[in-house]
Amino acid sequence: MISKNNNLPQSWFKFLVIFLVTILLSQINLPFLNDVRLIPDYFIALIIPAIIFRFKNINIFIVFILGILVDLFIGELIGQYAITFLIIYISNFVLHKFFVFKSPSQVIFLYFILLEIGFLVIGATSISYLLQNSDMYILFYKNIMTIPICFIYKLIFEKMSNK
Amino acid sequence: MAKKTGTKKLKLFNTQASPILPFFLLLLISISLMSFDHRNHINYDIKQYISALNAPIKFIINTPSTIIQNLKIYLSDQETLHKKIQSQKNEINLLLLNAQKLQSLENENENLRKILQIKEIVKKEVIIAEIVLPNQINGIPQVIINKGAKDNIKPGSAVMNNQGLIGQVTQVNSNSSKITPITSNQFAVSAISNKGSINGIISGTGNPLLEIRQLPAYESLAIGDYFLTSGLGGIYPRGIKIGKVTKIIPTYNTQFNRIIITPFSSPLSFSEVMLIRSDK
């Protein structure tokens, strides 16, 4: 017998809460961090686990809309995060076509690859960072700061998918 | 013993639609949106409309600092407050004295301009505003003030404080405005040296320092000299302090030097600013 899934709106509501909290976090300073440019990129950290877990069968159109929403709230240019999320999505798709990511170490490697792809696209499309200046170092440190946040989101999505 | 297998069935043929075609379509839309926004700044207009949605977030971010400020006032003792009031009274008296001198100088200047038939200086209106959080959005430094379109703030107004130039208003919402700081790589201002002999365009670098990219090497500029706004363009009044020369770097082209300037004011070092609005 086919049972009706009543959890769908509830899980989207949870995702909306996470999204709003992420918007809030992206505007809060981290304690003991003088250079605000080293704040982690919370949205890249959020979208990677969502794509990898295929949260509620998230498709390319939803990823695009989320990207546009991020651009409207915190982005520099409309389309910047949309393009980043799209490239992360398609990279995940292509990587899964050619490789198998079964063991935890392989999955962690996949996270790293997608993070780097995300940062490359953000760095290339940003109007605030100049790639010929020392801003490349800032992107590097920002990248390091984002890794733990990405794994925190991974844990949240794991818990949500287990329920 | 037989190993227990999962309930997941092995799929030989993937029946899901390939996302490649939608990807290229959406990629094209994103690139078009980015280039259109870069040229026409539609982002600013849209953000003005959705600023109401962002207001609760801004309120939450600013709440802790407001509570701390109120607590400090509540917990400060009477003696400290008396001392503070007395020092502020002294400061006001000094400023009033200076204002009187300034008034007489202004009258003298006006008379001289009339005699020499020089065009009258445009009158500027000063609005005082307070810097509010967030001071960064997704790691990109921002300066946001608590005055907006309701307080008659207009894009393009110059922003300064008692230390020097801070930036320019680039985005105005109903109750708040965004300032592009002088350190932003999208900022440039026409400047003149304190000796009055050297003119140049000072631009932000995205770092805490400013620069003049190419200044003729024959110009007699020394470390410690400082730059002021030249008043060209009519946005910034003449004579606002910008920054001090801290480095003179020779470039590959021996005819030019690169000048590194440290700004006098930093958005992190103050909470109140003055907006200068031209009458024109």
In short:
By secondary structure, chain A is mostly helical. Helices cover 69% and strands 0% of the residues of chain A. Chain A has one domain (40-162).
What does this entry look like structurally?
The complex is a heterodimer of chains A (163) and B (280). Chain A is mostly helical and 163 residues long. Helix content of chain A is 69%, strand content 0%. In chain A, helix 2 packs across helix 5. The longest helix of chain A is centred in the C-terminal third of the chain and has 28 residues, at 135-162. Chain B contains four helices and 14 strands. In chain B, the strands form three sheets. In chain B, strands 1-4-7-6-5-14 form a six-stranded antiparallel barrel. In chain B, strands 8-9-10-13-12-11 form a six-stranded antiparallel β-barrel. Chain A binds chain B through residues 20, 23-24, 26-29, 36-43, 59-61, 64, 67-68, 71-80, 82-83, 86-87, 89-90, 93, 125, 127-130, 133-135, 142, and chain B through 19-20, 22-23, 26-27, 29-34, 36-38, 42-43, 46-47, 50, 53-54, 57-58, 60-61, 133-141, 184-186, 205-207.
**What level of helicity do the residues of chain B show?**
25-40%
**CATH class bucket of the largest domain in chain B:** Mainly Beta
Domains counted in the coordinates of chain B: how many? 3
Please give the radius of gyration of chain B in angstroms: 26 Å
Counting copies of identical and different chains, the oligomeric state is heterodimer
Shape call of chain B = globular
End-to-end span of chain A in angstroms?
21 Å
What fraction, in percent, of the residue positions of chain A are helical? 55-70%
Average of the residue pLDDT scores of chain B: 81
User: Strand pairing plus helix content of chain B: what structural class?
Assistant: alpha+beta
